[in-house]
């Protein structure tokens, strides 16, 4: 299914004259990440921008969170992100230039209402610290690492039966009075990927409609 969706995007981009390639990978596996990065370099010779936005959330009460659930969440949200940053970062460091954009979460910035996402919140807090660490370590070699913490984004994922009861509560918590749309994040990603953000590194850019200000 994931590969089919990627291939659909490739088809859409090809109609616009943009060359792209579809790949499916399990980012928690080092060999999959290496295969993905090697394919990019083989096709384009370099990596200038990497946007790491894979993530999962299991939504269990803290006392019921199993070690399996904890590990699965961290394997994708933090281990996988680390592997992708490291693999792309090695290429960028050899080039002397690159932009890495990670996806954290507004939930890592505030004390949340009871939302049953201990593993998710903790993993996303780790993304912020990983970003800060890489951002300071790599900037003098031309690589900037930043992250975005979006608020609750209106995607099919939040319309699951498990999350529907929380949507009303989330809306009450957001000063903007609505959930974020994917388009609300696009300009932030473009900014962090462009030369306009060359003097920014290790920063967590919050786009949450004011939710973390409470």
From TrEMBL:
Keywords: Fatty acid biosynthesis, Fatty acid metabolism, Lipid biosynthesis, Lipid metabolism, Oxidoreductase. InterPro entries: NAD(P)-bd_dom_sf, SDR_fam. Pathway: Lipid metabolism; fatty acid biosynthesis; Carbohydrate metabolism; D-arabinitol metabolism. It is an enzyme of class 1 (oxidoreductase). GO terms for biological process: carbohydrate metabolic process; fatty acid biosynthetic process. Gene3D superfamilies: NAD(P)-binding Rossmann-like Domain. GO terms for molecular function: D-arabinitol 2-dehydrogenase activity. The keyword Cell cycle does not apply. The keyword Lipid metabolism applies. It holds the Pfam family adh_short_C2. Its EC number is 1.1.1.250. Belongs to the short-chain dehydrogenases/reductases (SDR) family. This is D-arabinitol 2-dehydrogenase [ribulose-forming].
